[in-house]
Every structure is written in structure tokens, then in C-alpha cells.
Amino acid sequence: MSTIEEIKTTTNPAPKVICSDKGSELTGSQAVLEACLIEGVDTIFGYPGGAIMPIYDALYDYNDKLKHILVRHEQGGIHAAQGYARASGRVGVVFATSGPGATNLVTGLADAMIDSTPIVAITGQVFAHLLGTDAFQETDVINITTPVTKWNYQVTDATEIPAVLAKAFYIARSGRPGPVLIDITKNAQMQKFSYEGYAPCNHVRSYRPKPIVRKEYIEEAAALINAAEKPFVIFGQGVILGKAEKEFKAFIEKAGIPAAWTILGLSALPTDHPLNVGMLGMHGNYGPNVMTNECDVLIAVGMRFDDRVTGRLDKYAKQAKVIHLDIDPSEIDKNVKATVGVWGDCKETLPLLTKLVNTKVYPKWVEKFRACDAEENKEVIFEELHPTTQKMTMGEVMRNLNDLTSGNAIIVTDVGQHQMVACRYAKFNQSKSNITSGGLGTMGFGLPAAIGAKFGAPERTVVAIIGDGGMQMTIQELGTIMQTGVAVKILILNNEFLGMVRQWQQLFNDRRYSFVDITSPDFVMVAKGYGIEGNKVTDRANLKAALQTMLEHDGSYLLEVMVGKENNVFPMVPQGCSVSEVRLK
Amino acid sequence: MTKQEFTITVYTENHIGLLVRIATMFSRRKINIESLNTSPSEAEGIHRFTIVINETEDVVRKLARQIEKQVEVLKAYYNNNDEIVWQELALYKVPTDEIAEKVKVERLLREHGARAVVIRKDYTIFETSGHREETDKLVEVLAPYGLIEFVRSARVAIIKESKGFHEKLKEFEQAEPGEELVENEFLDKQDEVFTM
Asked: What per-residue confidence (pLDDT) applies to B182?
């Protein structure tokens, strides 16, 4: 099937019927796998069970064409599919059985929904005649997953499968991407039907993936930018999802506007770009937070003004005219009222805007950001990266890691203090390199997502940075690493606390450390049990060499670094405060 | 902004599960749905939801956009009560002997535009339609005469300015929509919009 290659490379393939053996009898299960093949899927993460056995039986014969990764828990499966999708820019696919298998996907679906990750989840379901009877391993998966999926559908008849899967892949990856769940009853998986081929979907009448770009709003936006004296660009994952990194860079370079990123926008612009002024939000850099309330035109590109970015909304950028570029019309005016809303895919809107903006530089304005950097460096960064304390800091681990990876690695993080430190200090040269659970803040995301990322980008080094708490949430996925031999570098930053909650308890609850004191197993010994090499560092003198050993090791490796127990992440915009009230200590 | 009654009209595909998807848009914001009606629409194969809520316009606008974002929703409009014509249907069951004996009841029914749907020896069912105050008023009036049962339907509403959905549907069916479907049209005329 030569057409498969074409489909892999286009976002919305033409609806041409593709079929190797038209008119042949296929089972519903075979039709599912044919659909995956034609959609260019090469890796499936999953876990078998009673209600999905027919699909697994069919998979046995597709073993040479579709790689199936047996995870240790369905949550691990969907996080791996997310990591795969984020690293590769393609749709991640996960299989699970009915009942508990399907409910274990819910966290990952919610995570993919809020972080706009293209996922197709296929769940088995009990026989159609048993639906609604409380059958063994029956749950109402469609209704459970409705709020956390972009689209979901239950198939009870095999003849529907080709069209439904075509729609599923199309909806998952087009427009603002998101997770789609297809629930297939066991009888439909087993049912034989006359296969008439597979027609990829590129149009659903009730669905507009991209709003039409209107020139007048581009013109209004350009006029605002051209008249600005202190313009400021803030960007999110929309730039990466729209594959518009080049267009974005061209825009800020021509307009000369400093740009700051949200946690999911990270890596869309190289760290050392002269106009990259750093991270926004609660633990973002000092300059971007303070300057948000000083700029005169705020240009938001592919981001959604999450509360962790804006802080207190009624004191957010009130002095500024706001231009908001987004593919999702419901995001514009949702949190921050836009002066000009530019609806559309930023891959299309950015070049139009670039054409109309004047070539400019704002040296004095950019200098203000750099002055903030100097202050942040003095108050926070220098000590974090070059500590004089006896205990190591997370920041110095990142500094040493940057020296060794030169910004070429994919950094996958879990959730918590280490996540903020890693995102603040990691260096990136290329896009799709920062994989983290941003919107949902899912602890336990890191390890399975790193496994998926390595399958999605096998030529790249994948470093999973995980806290001692998050590691224990999905530690079972070490088994997946053991069985597949996937080369993931696991870097545990162990502060013997649930650090972020502890930091809040210290700052806002009078140090009442309520259930944040967490013990850990001997991670290195656990890894050893899984046949994974490991090492533990407690002394600064050994840190760099240990990191080097980890990176150079052939295969997966676990490195545990003991860091200071009560270190805090700063700067910080306390909850309920304005971004300009960002605290440096 | 103050809360007021808004009627949201949603044109959708007729698919199983869509009711839940739309209902969760309200429940997740802890908004009570005052009334919800689903019915066919003027366009073949297209379903029409009519939902009444009490909210500020700001929230209603965001809700309508989030509803419209759902894959199987074609369009969501919101209107205040000045922009629509609406009716609710109500049924009243009263003992027949009371009705037969007391002429006053008959007069009251006439005054309220009610008509008899079923007349049996033991009870009579009347029907009336109108705004909530009107149907409520008749409940009050009938109560002294032994009102046995009362039920009122959800609101159905017609948008005064609407030209119907036939033409819009044709646009939706095309892979490349025309200017008619440009969904940020409201930005041109923010005051007079009724559409998303």
C-alpha cells in the first residue's frame, strides 16, 4: 500500500478509499488494525483484557506492522501515548479493555484534553446485548469520558468501524487537537463483514477545525502592533501544535518584540534566542510577569490565559491592548478580554501578521526585561544554579544536565517543584522537546510519558525528570522499560518531601507540614530488580560524572539525586495575587 | 453584569450521547438549566435544543461558544426574551363534577385560553400554552377546584431575526465554507448580534 506514506505526511489526507483487498471479509478487529495502519500508526500502547480480546487476537497477525507496547497499567498506557504524540507530533494510540481498563484511562484523557494532545483511545466493551445489564467489567465508558474527550463514540456494529475510526483520527489531530475515545462492543470486534475499504476523513459537517481567517482583524492587530511602544508577545503550545515555530520566529524577529512562553509553549523558541525573555506565570521569570503589567500591547499566540499564567485576572494587563491569536474561538475572551481577537491557525495568521508589521527594534524595552533578569539572577538564579549550601539544589542538577545535553535532549517532567525548576532552567534548541503535564498537573505522568516520547522520537535522548512522589505513582512502568528495552534516562530529584505542597504549607499554612513527608524505596535497588542500571548521588562532587554516566549508558538508566529537603521554587506569584506582585523570596 | 433569562438555541446532529455532552457544559459551571427541550428543526436531520438559563450575558456567551465547539454541534445562538417568541404548554387535570357544576370554572378557563383535551366522568384535562406567568396563573385559579395534576413543558422558542437553518446547513455541508459561516462576524457589530 504505497498510499500510506502520503497519509503520514499530510495533516488532512484526501478522502480516497484505500483498500488492499476490497470486498474481502474482515472482522471488526481486523478493520480496527487496518485503520491504524492506513492512518500511519506504528506504535500502540495497551493492555489486554476480556472485552478487547478479539482485537488482541487480530493484533497477533499484525505484529510485523504494528508495534504493541505492553504497559503495566492503562494509565501508563495513555500517558505513554501522550508522550509519543507530543514528541512525534502524531496521534498517539492506546488500547484498553472494558470496565477498569477503560476507567484507568480517564486521568490520561483529562490530561490530553486540557493539554490538547491528539490521542485515539480504543476500549473494548461487553457484548451489545449485555449493555446496561451490569455485566462483568461493564462500565458506561462513553458517559464517564464525555467531559474529558473531544469526541467519543460507541460502536456496536462492525460495519461502522472504518468510518468511525477515520472520523476519530481526523478529529483527534485536526483543529485544536484532543483525545477521542472509541468504545467497541465485543460482538462488533468479532463480527465479520464485507470490507469496502477505508476512506480517511477530512470533513465532518458539524465540525469546523479552523475558523476562517479574517484579514480585517489581522490588519487591526498589525496597526496596534505598529503603534506600540512596549509590545510583548506571550506564546503557548499553539505554536508547536500548529507547526508554526518558523513563522513565529519570523514574526517576533521582524517586529522585534520580546517573547515569553507558557510551560507548554516551552521549546517552540530556542532558549538562547535574543528575544526569548523567559517563562510566564506562577513560577515563571521575574521580567515576563512584571512586564505583563507594563506593556502597552500584549500579543498572545496559541495560549489560553490559564490562571497559573495570569494570577489575579482583574489586575492582569489592564493597561494593555490585548491581541489574541487562537484556533479555538471559545478561548478568545474566555479569561482575558481581547481588544482584537484573531481567530485561526497561527500557521496561517502569523505570516499574514508578519507581512503587515513594521520592522522594528525596542532596545530600551527589551533592556527592561534584562534588568529584571539581572535582579532575578542576583536574588534567585545564581544561588539556585551555584549553591553554597551543603545540599544540592535542583537547579544545579539542571545546570549540569544542560552542559552535557547542550539543549538537544527531550526533557520529560512529572509534576511539582522539579517540574518548575526543570522548565525554568532546561535549555532547548529544538521544538517538541519539553513534555510535561501542564493543565492537569498529573503526578505520575513523567515516567510513562518518557517511554512514549522515546518511541515517538527514537533518535533523540529522552531524560525523564521526576520527583520522589511522582516516581512512586507510576513506578510500575519500569516493567515496561524492562520488557521493551526502551532507553529512557530517569533522573529522580529526591527531596524526601512532596515538595510543592510542602512549599505552600511553609509559606501559607505556617509550616504545618500535613502529610507531605514521604518515604521512598531504594530506587536504585528497585531499578536493579527491573534489570535497569542505576546510581544514587548524595555528594555534589560526583554529580556531573554521574549525569554523564547516565547519558552515555547504553540503554535505560536511573539516577537518583538527593537534593535539599526544604528548598523552595522562586520567583512565585502567590495564588490570588497579581503577576506584578511576583515574589523573589 | 446582572443575571437574566437567556434562551440558548443549539442546532446539532441527532446523535446518542449529545444531550449529556451539552448538559455537562452547564453542570460543570454549576448552572441550573431552567428548561430544556429537544426537537427536530426546520432543516432535515438536524436537531434543535432550546435551553433556558438564568445567567449574565458574559457567561452565556462563553457557554454558547463552548457548546458550539463540540464536534456534533453545528451552531449555538443565545437570545434574551426580547429577541424571541416563545411558548410553554401546560396540562391540568381537574375533577369533572366540579367543572360541570361550577360555571365560574368554565369562565375562568375561557379567560385563560384553555381547551379541553379529554373529558371523562371522573376528570377533565385542559391544555393551555403561553408564558410561564400565564400557565402559572391558571394553576392558582384552578387550585380551589381540586386540581389533581399539573405539568408544564419546556420552553420552545423562535428567534425573531432568524432566517432559518436551511442555508447555513448547506454551507456546513461544503468542505470549504463561504463567508456566511465566518464565525467571528459578531466582532463587526457587537451590539446587535444574536449569533455566535
From this structure: 46
CA distances from B173 to A175, A291, B80, B178 (A): 18, 46, 29, 11
Quick check: A149 and A107 in contact, CB under 8 A?
Answer: no
pLDDT tens, position by position, A126-148: 999 999 999 999 999 999 999 99
Interface contact A333, partner B, CB < 8 A = yes
Q: Are A178 and A112 in contact (CB under 8 A)?
A: yes
Residue with cell 487591526: A220
Residue A277, φ and ψ in degrees, nearest 5: -105, 5
Report the CATH architecture of B4-84+156-188.
Answer: 2-Layer Sandwich (3.30)
Measured between beta carbons, which residues in chain A are less than 8 angstroms from residue B175?
202-203
A214 contact residues in B (CB cutoff 8 A): 182, 184
Please give the average per-residue pLDDT across A476-503, as a whole number.
98
Instruction: Pick the residue of B187, B189, B190 with the most A CBs within 10 A to test the interface with A by mutation.
Output: B187
**pLDDT tens track for A187-246:** 999 999 999 999 999 889 899 898 889 889 999 999 999 999 999 999 999 999 999 999
Does residue A265 have a pLDDT over 90? yes
Contact between B187 and A142 using a beta-carbon 8 Å cutoff: no
> Of A136, A318, A525, A565, which is the active-site residue?
A136
Nearest to A146 among B17, B62, B172 (CB): B17
Dihedral over alpha carbons A52, A55, A60, A64 (to 10 degrees)? -130
- Name the CATH code of domain A3-194 (choices 3.30.1330.10, 3.40.50.970, 3.20.20.140, 3.40.50.1470): 3.40.50.970
Separation of alpha carbons A437 and A92, rounded Å:
15
Nearest CA in chain A to B16: A153
Of A142, A147, A206, the CB nearest to B73: A206
pTM: 0.93
So where are chain A's domains?
A: 3-194, 215-369, 392-562
Architecture category of domain B87-152 in CATH: 2-Layer Sandwich (3.30)
